[in-house]
Amino acid sequence: MKKFNTKDVIHISEVYKIPIDKQELRLFKRKLTATVKHLESFREMEKRISMIEPLQHPSNLKNALREDRIEKSLKIEDVFSNTLKRYKNYFVCPGVFNEK
Amino acid sequence: MKNKLHIDKPTIGLEIHVELKTLSKMFCGCPSDHFGKPPNTQTCPTCLGLPGALPVPNKKAVDWTILIGLSLNCNINKDSKFDRKHYFYPDLPKGYQISQYDEPIATSGWLVIGENNSKKIRIRRVHIEEDTGKLQHKKIDGKNVTLIDFNRSGVPLVEIVTEPDLSSGAETKEFAQKLQNILRTLGVSDCDMEKGTMRLEANISWGLKLGYKVEIKNLNSFKFVEKAINYELDRQRELIEKGELPRQETRGWSEKEAKTVTQRFKESEADYRYFPEPDIPPMEFTSEYIEEIKKTLPILPEELKKRFSEEFGVRAAYTTILSATGKLANYSLEVFNANRKTDLTNDQLAGLIVNKIIDHKSLTPGEFLKAALIQKSKGGSNDTEIAEFVEKAIASNQKAVQDFKKGKTNAIFAIVGAVMALSKGKANPQTARKLIEEKLE
Q: Does A52 touch chain B (CB under 8 A)?
């Protein structure tokens, strides 16, 4: 069974862009290992359902495609209606180059 | 341990992204032409990733991806589907990109390069996905911020992945140029590297056995492709020769510093947590459907080159340029087909087009032929001869060529002098200089 080490947890926090401190690092190492242990128990279930064909999609639809036609876009005020930070007509977020 | 690293051969694989020029985006009806448009004016709940919005794939983008697959000698998968690829970056509003993972539209193709098309570059896969938004980095009120424009978000993007069969910067450049010519002939993309409608990433190493690869991004011109790859191969070789294994990482090409520089932390495949896109039912293509798309394949550059050479007697140096885009190729074909009663050879006509001695863009093929005859009657065919002398002078004065390319502008006089010598003083030096500058650009 996979046991998570410090490097794994740091990697995951980088992937999800969630900074964590040393205390959280220890906590998540424990929690992730426990989660994977729980998931391991699903292997028993897998044996029982292995004969079932994987379901590609819940509907029986295929090729639900649309023609290449332009439709109306949103009005600019609607685009920004839920936004707190706006600069001219751009969305604004913290500078990505500030990341470690 | 250190000196046990063994250098094998340069190993280069490419990932090429091409924006399709459909009218609307991949999964919604917003216009896909985003260049020069005011920011965020071509967006809707789907391409902004708002909750509840449902993506519906653009049929033309799917058909064009099949067409690209066919033009690259791929197998078209009769069953294909979309998947979610997760990563977190401000240009991706949903937190995932709709892409294709294990059932891409096309697989196992090839494209030949090299003298006499002697080297086969295998194409691993061709798939369709959506483009991301565009970011701008600024300082506003003393704070570093990132500005986001989602006009590009959701534009159809085809990804073409090669096997690691390329082995130099020059080969990679040739492959990319050939691919660009094919895609332009198909009429599915502008493939403009400066505008970013064609983007290249190269995975480079000194042999697969060493177990690392370095990804190079920001390759936005063919010149940079060659320079960056050659630089990176040298950098890695130096490390390996010192007994150090190059770090697996993503690097970017910095033209200012003329070197590759470490870029960002990169996710591994498992981190993307691919899973089937539940909002889009799978696709199924019948043999008849694929066959119908195959019928729309135009004559591809390789075949055109052969035709220009064998049927019309045009020299190889011209056939490559004439077959580069569908528009120029068709125009040239019309000119050659119309050239039945003049005493001009098709090779001479090709020279007038390629060397831009007659500006053909505003002329019909018939008008072009008349202009060519007038040019000849004025003794203007001399210009075609000058173009030939220029080619010879460039070939035999490589040191001056290299000096000129490095910025020593006076080096051009050596080449002009060579042209004058070859023409026995008859060439117009201004025309010669203009043609040399165009050739060396």
A: no
Alpha-carbon distance A48 to nearest alpha carbon in chain B (angstroms): 22
For residue A89, give both structure tokens. 């007509």
* A55 close to B (CB below 8 A): no
Give the HSE-up count for residue B433: Cα atoms under 13 Å, Cβ half-sphere. Answer: 9
Nearest by CB to residue A74, choosing from B44, B145, B282, is B44
**Closest partner CB to A93 (pick from B43, B48, B90):** B90
Last-in-domain residue among B243, B261, B290: B290
Give residue A50's pLDDT. Answer: 83
Number of folded domains in chain B?
A: 2
Pairing of strands B249-254, B214-219: parallel
Q: Looking at the domain assignment, is residue B296 inside a domain? A: no
Q: What is the ipTM of this complex?
A: 0.86
Mark yes or no for CB contact B48/A87 under 8 Å: no
The pLDDT of residue B16: 97
Residues B222 and B274 in one domain: yes
Cβ of A58 within 8 Å of Cβ of B278? The answer is yes
d(CA B101, CA B85): 8
Residues 245-304, chain B, touching A (beta carbon < 8 A): 265, 267, 271, 276, 278, 280-284
pLDDT tens for chain A, 100 residues long, are 778 889 999 998 988 888 999 999 999 999 999 999 998 888 888 878 888 877 778 888 999 999 999 999 999 999 999 999 999 999 999 887 654 4
Token look-up 């210009």 returns: B383
- Compute the Cα dihedral for B387, B390, B391, B392 and give only its sign: positive
The SS3 assignment for B312 reads coil
Q: How many angstroms away from the CA of B43 is the closest CA of chain A?
A: 5
**Residue B65 sits in which domain range?**
2-290
Calculate how close chain A gets to B32, using CA atoms only, in Å. 9
Region of residue B149 (left: phi > 0; alpha: psi -120 to 50; beta: else): beta
pLDDT tens, residue by residue, B393-408: 898 998 888 888 877 7
Test A94 with B31 for CB contact under 8 angstroms: no
Neighboring chain B residues of A59 at a CB cutoff of 8 Å: 281
